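hey so i finaly got around to running the thing on Histidine biosynthesis bifunctional protein HisIE from Allopontixanthobacter confluentis. pasting the sequence first so u can double check i didnt mess up the copy paste, my clipboard has been acting weird all day
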Amino acid sequence: MADISELKTQRETGSDFMPKFDDKGLLSAVVIDEATKEVRMLAFMDQQAIDKTIETGVAHFHSRSRGKLWMKGESSGNILKVNSILVDCDQDALVLMCEAAGPTCHTGATSCFYRKLDGGKLHALDT
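ok and heres what it spat out for the 3d tokens, dont ask me to read them lol
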């Protein structure tokens, strides 16, 4: 069995996908609009969400509030078609490069990141 140092090296430099989940079995996933490079959302994925995303080509996540798998857009129709998945150096975060079928945010905004912090206050971004 490989020791911790060997696993770290494999994870950081190898070609095997070895997701490093937190103590709740999750990792962070940032969704980027492939065409505009706009950050659309941040969500969490467990192994089931990763597997379903790879299987279908549509973004699936783990809902922390509901404690279950959900497909982005399952009720709104605003699905995210995943074109590629980028994996960070220690495999505890992913970037999903996507084509969005519509707004990503549950508020109806294109992106969940529609405000900036300035002077201790939130201000709407110019769109």
